[in-house]
Amino acid sequence: MAQTANSRREPPADVFATIDRDHLARMTFGDCNLERELLQLFDRQATMLLVRIRAGAPAAVKPLAHTLKGSASGIGAGGVARAAEAVECAAPADCSAAVDRLAQAVDEARALIAELLRTG
């Protein structure tokens, strides 16, 4: 099937939960270039923040997770936002497991972002 200039090649339906494309489109007023820019920024920021969260002192983890939660919410990455919130709320004994779940959510979001950026 031929694609029109305005159509997008969509990834399989099971990955839509990773990033809410409708939310992203609303936040960018449907500007595909702005969507790409925000996805690229999120990709870099999520990677950087996750490294800092893993290496950070316990007092730094919650604010870093809060920052990541806000960024994820902005692009519609609900799984990352929920996982970051879990890190924010985690007791010290549970923080490591919460960070591991956050890392998994970030990896899933980054994989979808890579696919979206590759396919346009």
User: How many E strands?
Assistant: 0
Q: What pattern of helices and strands is seen along the backbone?
A: HHHHH
In total, how many domains does the architecture comprise? 1
The helix/strand class is mainly alpha
Indicate the proportion of strand residues.
under 5%
Identify the CATH class.
Mainly Alpha
Characterization of the model:
The chain has a single domain, classed as Four Helix Bundle (Hemerythrin (Met), subunit A) (Up-down Bundle). The two termini are 17 Å apart. It is built from 5 helices and no strands. With 120 residues, the protein is mostly helical.
Short structural summary:
This protein is mostly helical.
